[in-house]
Amino acid sequence: MSQTLPDTIAASVFNGRADCIVRTARELAARGWTPATSSNFSMRVDAGHAAITVSGRDKGKLGRDDIMLIDLHGNAIGSDARPSAETALHTQLYRRWPAVGAVLHTHSRTQSVASRLFAAEGLIRFQGWELQKAISGHDTHEGVLEIPVFPNTQHLPELVACVDAWLDAGKPLHGYLIDGHGIYTWGHDMAETMRQLEALEFLLDCELELRKLRTS
Ligand SMILES: [Zn+2]
Fold first, then answer.
1. How far apart are CA 71 and CA 206, in angstroms?
2. Where do the domains of the chain lie?
3. pTM of the predicted model, to two decimals?
4. Could you give the CA distance from residue 145 to residue 73 in angstroms, rounded to a whole number?
5. How far is the CA of 56 from the centre of ligand 1 (A)?
6. Cα–Cα distance for residue pair 48/94, rounded to 1 Å
7. Most C-beta atoms within 10 A of its C-beta, which of 31, 150, 168, 190?
8. In tens digits, what is the pLDDT along the chain, a chain of 216 residues?
9. Are the CB atoms for 14 and 21 separated by under 8 Å?
10. Which CATH architecture has domain 11-215?
11. How far is the CA of 201 from the centre of ligand 1 (A)?
12. How far is the CA of 113 from the centre of ligand 1 (A)?
């Protein structure tokens, strides 16, 4: 794939984002969180563009050529590759929040199982876990952290509408699950986004384990 950049974007800037996404994707793939070419990752490049994974690639074997430039409406810029199928869920976050710099979406077993278990309630409520503090804006285990579970659909505008409805209701949102599917989270940069993803994975795993022990 060849990526042509607009004059306003320096190659060093785009390549830096692409390399960061590649490194992160390999790390997440090594943990088994991106099975069967699933999952997608992106980083903001400037006010109107993001770098995102090309659709359908093995996330453990990505190179710089597997990352492409899009505008914030999901259109490919300077490339004839196809961006991730769920690009609309990334661009929605960049459009809503100018401070969002990175978005990670994975399909770990824990995320997938938890999404099924809590789908009927429509959310998971964490309270009393020290690791809630790894989520931006949470500085104590005593607070309540709510992660919604939205119904899965292959029709992306429906999912975009679910996220918009949650946010338009004024509720805080640091990540969400999609039923039987996986998780989305985001942050100012890749380090913050990765920290939140790890924390959410850990919290979901703890909730699942607790339920197993209580019912056995
Ligand atoms: Zn997905």
1. 38
2. 11-215
3. 0.96
4. 30
5. 11
6. 9
7. 150
8. 589 999 999 999 999 999 999 999 999 999 999 988 889 999 999 999 999 999 988 888 999 999 999 999 999 999 999 998 899 999 999 999 999 999 999 999 999 999 999 999 999 999 999 888 888 888 788 889 999 999 999 999 999 999 999 999 999 999 999 999 999 999 999 999 999 999 999 999 999 999 999 886
9. no
10. 3-Layer(aba) Sandwich (3.40)
11. 15
12. 14
